[in-house]
Design brief:
The chain has about 120 residues and is mostly beta strands. The chain has one helix and eleven strands. The strands form two sheets. Strands 2, 4, 5, 6, 9, 10 and 11 form a seven-stranded mixed beta sheet that branches. Strand 4 and strand 5 form a beta hairpin. It starts with a strand and ends with a strand.
Length: about 120
């Protein structure tokens, strides 16, 4: 698998929106689930959302109702639409795909920075 590439981060004010993208050929062909994570400065990495191979979705309680995960197989891209952003959403966001037998091999990108100012 090719490591995914994230984009779409930036600086916004509280209440703003951003759409993150995660591009890799695996998005359209994977038989494993996909995830978004985030890591704020000085904190542990936090799971944000997951997308199953059947396009089922799950969200962390902290983002439920504000973030939406989706993918466009024709563009080999997974998205994270983030609305009603809060300062506590400030973090480096990264996506993860998996491969190998049993989906045990993670593939992660460099991440994209999201900064939300009050």
């Amino acid at each position: 698998q090719v490591q995914p590439v994230e984009s779409g981060g930036g600086s916004v004010q509280t209440g703003g929106s951003l759409r993150l993208s995660c591009t890799t050929p695996a998005i359209s062909s994977t038989t494993c689930g996909m995830n978004w994570f985030r890591q704020a400065a000085g904190k542990q990495r936090e799971w944000v959302s997951s997308l199953g191979i059947d396009d089922s979705t799950n969200y962390a309680d902290s983002v439920k109702g504000r973030f939406t995960i989706s993918r466009d197989k024709s563009k080999n891209t997974m998205y994270l639409q983030m609305n009603s952003l809060k300062p506590e959403d400030t973090a480096m966001y990264s996506c993860q795909t998996r491969g190998g037998r049993g989906c045990t091999i993670p593939y992660g990108g460099q991440g994209t920075q999201v900064t939300v100012s009050s």
